[in-house]
Amino acid sequence: MVKRVDMLCDADKEMMLDFSRLCVARLGNYLPLKLFISVFRHFLDANVLKEIDKDRLIIEHAAAAFEGGKDRGAADVDGLFEMTKKVDHEFIERFSNDFFSIQVRYADFAEIRKKRILAFIGMVFDLLGNWHDGLPFAEVVKRTSSEERYTQTLREILHLYNLETKILSNSITFHGPAAKLKDLFAEKLFVTMESTAGEIAVEYARRAFADGACSYGGFCIPRPAG
């Protein structure tokens, strides 16, 4: 089970990093933000690493519940939500600096995060239910879902992350000249993340279902063109 959990976490990490890198690259091509992209990149890079840590918590919890014979409906979503707050607090302490500060208002996005937690738990239960010894991850995906449904699952996970990031951006105070572009950054960020999420979900699902897909089910793909 440990190996399977690591594979799921590695797959998630690769997708999230790839998604974030592509979003930052596209934001950097937007002229009004170009001068301050290094400040915004610092926030986005830290934010996605935080999300990956939270995703690991969820995956590990879901896998432990599955292995223990528990029903997915018995998952402690509220408990997991509280655990993710600890990751947030570490993120805030580590990355609040002269460029930006954060005051998180959990009530603004609690239901969105809990919905994402449930989506992850459902995906993990579905995959582990079809994961037999010796099967590569791509084959597990094919036995679990159609390509269309898998695309929708990835899209939903990314979409909920985008929504939370959009709301979180309202809790950020940028210091210095970049402060003048905060609203423009938040607006452009969400539009960019949503369009990129759709592309990433389609491409990763397509690769997972392609002949000769790699062991992580297509997560080792080249990034779509910026």
Which keywords apply here?
mainly alpha; 226 residues; 3% strand; two-stranded antiparallel ribbon
3D structure, described in words:
The protein has helices at residues 2-28, 31-34, 37-67, 77-95, 110-128, 137-144, 147-168, 182-209, and strands spanning 100-102, 172-174. With 226 residues, the chain is mainly α. Helix 1 packs across helix 8 (182-209) and helix 5 packs antiparallel against helix 7 (147-168). The protein is globular, with a radius of gyration of 18 Å.
Strand order of the largest sheet: 1-2
**Portion in strands:** under 5%
How much helical structure, as a percent, in the residues? 55-70%
**Strand segment tally:** 2
Mean pLDDT, to the nearest integer, reads 84
Distance between the termini: 37 Å
Number of helices: 8
> Largest sheet, if any?
2 strands, antiparallel
- Radius of gyration, rounded? 18 Å
Order of helices and strands: HHHHEHHHEH
- Structural class designation: mainly alpha
Poorly predicted runs: 214-226
| Overall morphology | globular
The total domain count is 1
